[in-house]
Amino acid sequence: MALVAWNVQGLGNKNTVRALRRLNLKYQPAVIFLSETKQKKRYLERVRRNMKMSNSFYVEPEGIAGGLALWWSDDVHITILHSSKNIIDMKISMKGEDVWFGSFVYGPPYNDDKLLFWEMLARKIADRDSKWCVIGDLNIVANQEEKLGGALIDQNSIKWYLDFLDNTNLLEIPMKEGSFTWSNRRSEEDVILEKLDRALATVEWSTFFDRAIVLVEVAIASDHCPLVLCTDGLNRRGKREFKFESKWLSEEDCDNTVKEGWGLNSHRANDKIFVGKLKRTKFELIKWSREKFGKNRRTEEQLIHLIKRLQDSPLTPGEVVVLKELKKELLKLWESEERY
Question: Which parts of the sequence belong to the Endonuclease/exonuclease/phosphatase domain (predicted)?
Fold first, then answer.
């Protein structure tokens, strides 16, 4: 199962929606959690339907700030237990699996609220002798190594967080492809990089999902990187269901591919059977699509690889420009595929 957690810093930006759509296509998550949506339910519902997620729960923003959104597919069953501007707390289970607790969070950005937040989470786990996972923008760094640039980290906020970990015995789920999850997107001496987003779990949860890992994706239109929690590790999903893509219709050779697959001469006994024709046409379309659009996929993978390398390190002014251009190229590629 895959779960996405992302501080989008406003979902009104079309590039943010575009990046979210790509995450959805790539990982086919069972759950998507968004913080700082800054949008009302009516707009968020339109985006949810576009993502083809079946269920939703929202915490409305306060004015033009904050806002939480939780979407999930019919593959999971979710019961909302508690919500506030900083958390959506729930029970969750996949079909046929044990129930566990999940808390999707947007940690308070101000120190005056941090201690109360950690105390609230600690009370929740004290009432639960079970599997529990916390994921989202915790708005905290655990030590100076998790921050590069800027002022020294506040020792009080660190102490509150470390006390919370000691009291709850939570473990951090391993993170792959990224040391930092937030950036002020400046260069050299002005850059600040921090690890603000993460996933934590009880020993029981970590034992049950012993291959779980968190992937750090590219930050597009937001200062935060999306997190993708894969409960089964990096195992490849099963074969994707075949779907005819509307963009194929704009290609002249698509029509010939369908005709070839449907009317291909063969000496096989089931050549005239309808199901046999469908199978051959599907095979021809898959082969044609790989040849036709495979270059785009390779280009996308290369761009994402370069962006990830740059976004996780201090940059010279020239590298900042390069990073912006790489993101523009990636968005341009995504946009071209969405025109169909």
Answer: 5-224
